[in-house]
Each structure stands twice: as structure tokens, then as C-alpha cells.
Methionyl-tRNA formyltransferase
Amino acid sequence: MDAPIRMIFYGTQQFAVTVLQVLLKSPMIEVGLVVTQPDKPTGRKKEVVFSPIKTVALQHDIPIVQPDSLKSWVPEMQDVDLAVVAQYGNIIPERLLSLPVYGTLNVHTSLLPKYRGASPIQTAILHGETKTGVTIMKMDKGLDTGPILIQEEITIDPDETYPQLDARLAVVGANLLARTIPPYISGSLVLAEQDNSAATTCTQLTRDDGLVDWQKSAQHIYNQYRAMTPWPGIWTTWNGRRLKLLRVKPADLGSSRPGRASAHDNAFFVETADGALEIVELQMEGKTVMTASQFLSGNHRIVGADLGI
């Protein structure tokens, strides 16, 4: 193809920024339109903050649209060769997926058909996976069911949190996509159908996904912390109030009563099914963020108490 590849880009989060920035460096690609979610008020003052992708699109003078829904939306951009989706966050109707000449590609953060759905990175961490990767796939009307162009596998570090792994996968996915588009457009790339019998799915996270079950192993709860950082975060309850556990780490401490709180040398621990977690930083409902020693100095009655009941 002699002329640049005219592209619509769907994305919202920082992950999408990394992908878009790589595409903008390619002389073969012309991003003619960015589709992102509507601006949302955040914080106590409800100030409107642009999505990360909108900020970058404005810097590069790329036209932006932010429809509440894509059900009836029709892009004004004509002669679209390709569309790319990277953590957009809304359902894209089939009519829009097939609108570009070469269809719509998705940068999906798992090794499909494993972990189809909305939270593949968090789910991989939560399940204690040691490997994951990126799949570049052609989207169809199903949930991440389309044919695969290419995949790249990476190792998950044992202490890696969701934001850290998300950032690494963004770089991998962006470079993989940029390398894959030319042979895909030229027709020299053979697409592979997914094995639906091997598929697993993951769902959108809710606040309740962060609730700690102290009857689980210390490693399971630590994986939950890694996966749920920064949202919804992990939490428990004490005296009927929510207690956010903002920084934790496994501790070499025996357990005899899951959920029991203890303190040693100004360090704060909670026992699990097979050990304990050290709570490094936490926040009681309605209070400010505190270190463990700060919290214990004003809440010594928690020592010996059972949390989460």
C-alpha cells in the first residue's frame, strides 16, 4: 500500500496512550480519528478530567469523538482502512467493526483464548499465573473470539502489581501491533482461529472483588492485592467499618486463627489460612492514610481482634 493506512483508534486509558504513540511514529499510518469515552467528573469537587488518550489526541491535533453509546453513532471519517481498539471500555457494534476495509484489530492483554473479557491482566495475577502476554486479534461480534494475527508471551514477576504489568504489556502490545499491521494489510499474514474449547473468561471488577477472605492462603490474598491495586483495592472490616489495606506483603509468621490481628515491634499483621500478611499502609473508613505504626498508636484495641466478621 503506497498511501498511508487511514485509521480510527478506539481507546481511553494510559495503555491506549502507549499504543497510539507508537502508531503515530509510523509513516505508514495516519490516525484520522480517536474515539474515547466521555469526560467524567472525578474527586470530591467533581472536576472534569480528560482521559489520557484524549489529552494525547489533542496534543497531536487528531479529531476526537466521545459518544455515550456507539449503537447509533456513525463516523464522519471516510475511506477508513483499519480500526484499532486498545482498552476502550465500551462495546463496539458489529457494523462498526466491519466498517473499515481491513476490519478492526484489538490489542488484548492475554494469550487468547485464555482470559477473554474485561479484566485479563487482573485475573491472571489473581490466579497466580507466572506468564501472560498480548494477542493481536481481528474483532468479530463475539467477546474476544476473533481470529488471531500474532501473540507474544512475557513472564509475570512475583511481586508485580496490575499497573506495573499493564504498563509492560502496553509496550509489548504497541510494538507487536506496529510490526504486525503491514503484513496483515498486505495479506501475507495467516490468521489462526481460536480454540473455543480452551477458552476462559473474566468479568468486569466490582468493589466486592477487593473483599479479603482471611480463610484463603497468604499467597492468594497477596495475589488479590497485586491484582486489585489501585482499584478496587483490597479491604476488610473491623468494628463494622471498612478498612482499606493499601500496602501489604507476605510475612513469615505462623497462623492459628485466620483473620486475627497482631502486632510485633510496631509492625501490623493479620493471620491467614497458612501464614500471615504484614499490613504496611492502611486507611480506616473516613480517615486519612496511615502507616502501620501510626494506625496502631491510635487503634491498639485491634490487636487480638478478628477482622472481616
